[in-house]
Amino acid sequence: MLPLTFPSCPHNLTPNFGEGIKLSSHPTDRTEIRSAESERGREREREREKQSKNEIDMELDGLSQLKVLSLKYNRISWLHPKAFASNRQLEHLDLFNNSLTAIPDRVLSPLRSLRRLDMSNNLYTSAKLGPIFSQLPLFRHLSMGGSLIPAILVGDFKVLRNVSLEQFALKAQSSLPKYQPGALAEVRTESLWFDFALDKNPSALPDILVDISRNQVASVRFRNLFEFTYYTGWLDLFAPLRQTRVRNLSFFRGKFNENLLGFILKNVEGSEVRNLSLQSVDFARSVNRSASLPNIEDLVLDWLTLTEISNPEVLGFNQRFSWFSKVQALVIKKINFNYVPCPAWNAMKLVRFLDISDNQLENSYIYNKRCRYQGTMARLEEFLLHHNAIKSLREVALLTAEWASLHTIDLSNNQIGRDETCEWRQPIATLILHHNRVTSAIFKCLPTSLVHLDMSHSQLERLERAYFEMAVNLTKLLLSGNRIKFIPSGWSSPGLQTLAVDGNSFGVITKGSFQLMPSLATLRAGNNPYHCTCDLFRFVQDIHRRGLLRLAGWPEDYICYHPDRYIDTRVVDYAPGRLECDVSLVVAISVSTTAVLVASSMVLCWRFDALWYIRAAASKAFAYHAFISYSHSDANWVRGELLARLESNEPPYRICIHERDFTPGKWIIDNIIENIENSRKVIFVLSKSFVNSEWCNYELYFAHQRAIGQAFEDVVLVVIEAIKPDSLPNKFCKLRKMLDTKTYLEWPPEANRQPFFWAQLKNWLWVRIIEYHSTEGGQSAHHVCAGSLVRDQSHSPTLQLFPCQVPIQFPFESCH
């Protein structure tokens, strides 16, 4: 095997050896790690194998700037005294979980910069430290010991008497057989971690606490204090805790019962402990619960943390929950409890921070109408409920209605999504709702006082502008990973500074999309199916020109999806020609050629009359005679009147409606664009419902984007409900202009006027009005026949005539 060579000195070096090894040092001018199969040759390697020497030479001489060396999880059994002679800058040495049979001493002599040493979980049988540990001026963290250490004796840590450690971690044999009082009295450290059980020697715990009381220890952590059995004795093991200066006390794993928990709480109550944590402990009821344990009512704590406890009955240790009464921050996570008893709310009067996440809470169990919430949780500021099964935001609002100080609620990873209205009495500033299943109805239930709103990854499809007009304090809005199909026109949020709408389904952004958000400084809008059009190009150009808005994820997250020729093109690389997007240039060119075009058009129109128009219109084959744009509220009239009349005609008109003719699986906007392009005319069925529909606004927008000179000439306006142009919102400015300047059809409710309506509509659908004469009763009358331009199988345009269904007199001249 070739040696591993490092061209420059790494700060971290972590070799991994599969066999037992010894670490030694040999002079070298190269920075190399040589394995047992290196350049020494196959012969020497075979000889080494014969001698069964588990030794690997690791040359570290060239690594003079090495700061961190990790050799954990190997089988190192011996260290050469000069192994680190050239690594005087080494600050962190990790020898965890190896096979060392003696605590390193001389090998550490050169390491005057050493700050952290982890040599725990090795095979040495004594905890006694050598004199070198008193000669390391920067030494602050020591982890030592292993499962073969049977006793902790006085004098083992004497060399640490004048060393100020930040953390000292000690591992010893399970069910530690022997602990000499005074063994830890000379350890000067801020934090003590113990990893040994006292199942068979519980009386050692008071001795350990007495030794701790002689020092300035601020934090103590016990791992597996009772590993195999529950403590059933009557001796108060934690009595000396009251004499210590410990402020942080934590228990990780191990077996706990009511008696042991009672001893702990009783002594914490009279101590300096302010942070108590029980994590991953195995809790059980005591068979012979001590009647002498007092009620815990004066447990003054900054933090009480109960996490990943196997039995939720730990919360019922005190039925009146009085041990919560003077706690300021309470964390109860992953205990699988599913309801909060009424007395618990009354007990938590001083709690400012409450985290009951990762449980099985549901609405009916967290908000109980039989409980009285008035006067409870008056100081609560932050309420975390994420990863539960809560479905109703309204019931959370009812639960917290009397909690006047509350400003933050986290309901992420629940099942919020009901259509309901909420009343919030306090000014909630932060609401976290990501990973729920919400609809646009959620906006009726959101507090308008919000400063920070997170509804990312919640399947939201549409935004409600009205809410943002009321939420005047909103500065941060996170909507990533939803299904939002369009940015609403006129979206106003004056105070919004940060907006995330990345990973949604909209493809159109225009220069004015965020114009009513003057404070917006950061916009994250990547990973959307962008339609690379002039509007998007102008939007990007405007952002870069003004330099006031930062596009997060630019340019790698912004990719074109439409039109087809730009698929997978980065938006930053989309550069349409100036003539394509510069309106002023187009106008200038148009004005300069107007005279020629007008003159030519007049001559052609006069010379070729109808034939010219027929050929112009027939220059493209259309799949449909008309595309109908209408609101879902008007669907019955469209299907029952308009569609039935046009498709029952002879020959029938080919009509496109979205609910029947859109291609399944395609993006909705792609379906709109494609079918409008494939239709000769576009019929807009106007009503108040049409005005309130965002999709109808999009269809009107794309109809306007048809080829220049064709756009509104192919648009037919059918008004079925009276609309005043002046009452239309600003986003319908094009529609207002059309109603003011373009003739439109109005649906008459009187049956005798409807034939005239149908005749006008058919005439408008690219149908020629042909006059013919009939004599009936000796009188001549002008009747109307309809003609439709279609293509036969040879793709030649043919004008088909068909008889009129209703003879009507018209006051205009013949088409002939």
Kindly describe this structure.
With 816 residues, the chain is α/β, with parallel strands linked by helices. Among the domains are: 1-144 and 157-163, Leucine-rich repeat, LRR (right-handed beta-alpha superhelix) (Alpha-Beta Horseshoe); 171-337, Leucine-rich repeat, LRR (right-handed beta-alpha superhelix); 623-764, Toll/interleukin-1 receptor homology (TIR) domain (Rossmann fold), CATH 3.40.50; 767-802, no CATH class. Helix content is 20%, strand content 20%. It contains 18 helices and 39 strands. Helix 14 packs across helix 16. Mean pLDDT is 82; it is low at 1-22, 24-40, 45-56, 609-618 and 767-816. It comes from Callorhinchus milii (Ghost shark). GO terms for molecular function: transmembrane signaling receptor activity. Pfam families: LRR_8, TIR. Belongs to the Toll-like receptor family. It is found in: Membrane.
